[in-house]
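Quick one, tokens below. Sequence please?
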């Protein structure tokens, strides 16, 4: 009888172990696209940036432990910093739709931005790097400005790269199920991934590839970054940024990126000024650890000049605690570098929000907005 109990316990242990391993590999192992090796950006066994990128091979657990436990830590960039979270302005579905002849841009937090364009009665709605909950092992600090169930129709989702705070499978499946005609634009090398994750209509893109619907043109462009979703796929999916062209205006979404020559490369590719650049500024500290993959406020200002941007609005801050910077530190760091008019300049904001004003740096207008803020172009 005792032997039988032991056998039952051992059998249960084996089944539990096998199930645990299966769950682990299903969560951390993903299929690789065999066609990735045909990409002009893939060589020597991985995808590459335009500039040398030996520092962007992916961070090992040892690197992360060194950062977390041994430092060094960067000094505060702003005096009197607190843990205060950014304000979230609540929005309705009606608030998100661009009026006729306009492009409306509303920030949802992190790198998730709503871009709506209406021309000749036809509206096209786009979401960038949507993530509605929290990535694994990370806490979301602030809520969405609108419940996900209340979102209007989404025509396109664009994904900049395969990191879990930018490519969220649950969010993508939710959007696919809610929007039967949704198209998801992905970087090169993600066809097999999208099929295994049942993401619906997807397009895996190379640099310069464009997708057009009505008056909106979406072009996949370079970034200076890296990718990883699982345990054995580092830099086996590409990464990039996007330009949205509509009504003779350009909105540029940088995704995640370090600073490199790719910003000037993009300006040359586009051949005309960027009307609004959406540039990341958060998860930028400590610089010794983050600088190769994440620009901070100072480099975002440089990037806006490289892009020949008329204006830029900062994203990728205040939503997830991914760096040593406090929730509002990236924005406050940016603000102290700008010159502001004596009276608020709120032209181009929708809806009007007292206290938000465009600043200026080297001829570029910069909007230190908050989650739920919007801009009409």
């Amino acid at each position: 009888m005792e032997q039988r109990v032991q056998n039952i316990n051992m059998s249960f242990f084996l089944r539990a172990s096998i199930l645990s391993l299966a769950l682990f590999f299903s969560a951390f192992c993903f299929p690789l696209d065999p066609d990735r090796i045909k990409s002009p950006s893939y060589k020597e066994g991985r995808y590459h940036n335009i500039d040398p990128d030996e520092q962007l091979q992916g961070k090992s657990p040892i690197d992360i432990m060194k950062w977390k436990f041994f430092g060094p830590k960067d000094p505060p960039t702003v005096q009197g910093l607190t843990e205060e979270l950014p304000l979230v302005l609540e929005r309705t579905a009606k608030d998100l739709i661009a009026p006729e002849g306009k492009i409306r841009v509303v920030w949802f937090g992190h790198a998730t931005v709503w871009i709506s364009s209406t021309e000749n009665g036809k509206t096209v709605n786009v979401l960038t790097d949507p993530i509605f909950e929290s990535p694994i092992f990370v806490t979301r600090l602030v809520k969405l400005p609108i419940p996900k169930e209340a979102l209007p129709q989404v025509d396109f989702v664009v994904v900049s790269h395969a990191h879990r705070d930018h490519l969220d499978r649950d969010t993508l499946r939710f959007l696919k199920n809610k929007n039967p005609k949704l198209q998801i634009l992905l970087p090169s090398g993600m066809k097999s991934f999208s099929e295994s994750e049942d993401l619906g209509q997807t397009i895996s893109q190379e640099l310069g590839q464009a997708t057009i619907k009505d008056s909106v043109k979406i072009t996949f462009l370079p970034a200076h970054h890296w990718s990883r979703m699982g345990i054995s796929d580092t830099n086996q999916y590409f990464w990039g940024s996007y330009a949205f062209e509509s009504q003779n205006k350009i909105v540029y979404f940088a995704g995640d990126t370090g600073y490199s020559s790719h910003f000037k490369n993009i300006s040359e590719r586009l051949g005309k000024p960027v009307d609004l650049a959406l540039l990341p500024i958060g998860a930028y500290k400590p610089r010794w650890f983050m600088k190769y993959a994440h620009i901070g406020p100072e480099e975002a200002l440089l990037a806006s000049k490289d892009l020949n941007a008329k204006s830029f609005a900062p994203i990728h801050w205040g939503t997830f605690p991914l760096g040593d910077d406090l929730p509002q530190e990236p924005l406050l760091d940016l603000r102290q570098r700008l010159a502001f008019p004596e009276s608020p300049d709120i032209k181009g904001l929708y809806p009007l929000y007292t206290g938000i004003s465009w600043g200026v740096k080297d001829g570029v207008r910069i909007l230190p907005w908050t989650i739920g803020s919007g801009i009409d172009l």
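Residues 2-28 form the longest helix (27 residues). The chain has one domain: 94-376.
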